[in-house]
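Its record is set out here:
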Amino acid sequence: MLGGMSRRPLSAPAPRSAAGTAPAANDPATDGTTAPLLAELCRLLARHAPHDGVHDTAIPGVAAVRASQPGSEIGHALHQAALCLIAQGAKRVMLGDEVYVYDASRHLVFSVDLPIGAQVMRATPDEPYLCFRLDLPAQAVADGLLRAGDTAMPQPAAMADPAQARGLFLSRTGAPLLDAVLRLLRLLDAPDDAPALAPLVQQEIIYRLLRSDEGARLARVARADSQAHRVARAIGWLKAHYAEPLRIDELARQVHMSASSLHHHFRAVTAMSPLQYQKQLRLQEARRLLLGEVSDAASAGHRVGYDSPSQFSREYSRLFGVPPARDAQRLRQQAGVVVV
């Protein structure tokens, strides 16, 4: 389950407030040339997501997401590297203490896998939240960087600001990107053409993300000699070994960094320490286990690496708002789907 986006109703009570304000509906970025493109995108997404939830399509790595009302809960998931482009509605994503609010005027890019919370902010049955999601495998991004040529991409010198290292960012949604997304979704109605043409359009989308104002942040992770690439490798190791005791010196050796450099750059990319990241992985996996595979909290905690049931219950309650047994009972009783 680790590394994917949760389809189950994994949620926690919504906080009282959050930083950030959704852009206005008349944001200039949604006017002019983008308006008819967004209208068509809404129609296509509504057809391929006929009811609330995350709907994988026949094109690998492409999903349509729908929600008919604002979320009363915060959904939690380990969100893999992906482009998330809203056609209608608004959403907020929480990474640690940071809040990213976006709508049809901006898209969200995950350059690495991150444990996040998310909540749909604007949606109605008549105008549901509709979102296009495209997975961004590391190799596909690296191939895109290679095909475009490094000189066409943002250079490391443009990324000197530590704030630009975060593995999650917002960028303006323009007509060229929307046009490519539409051509990819139209291929769902051309199943004979999709196997040959969909990979080419996906390559174009990655190219346009790399060439965007924030493209340096995606390119950085793809460069094998960058610290961000080493952090991505550390994330991969944590995902594979989340239930094991974490030894920072060993993890640093795995990715050819010093322990102090790993701490610094890992926090810059993920907004948390390696230990905090591992804790998020453990708790989210324990929650999944409680919903389907184990019946008691102590067993779930032990399966994900906790030796102390009391520590597991305490940290679970801190993240999800309630103790594990009560949370699992509440989630099983929920009829709705929390879109992440």
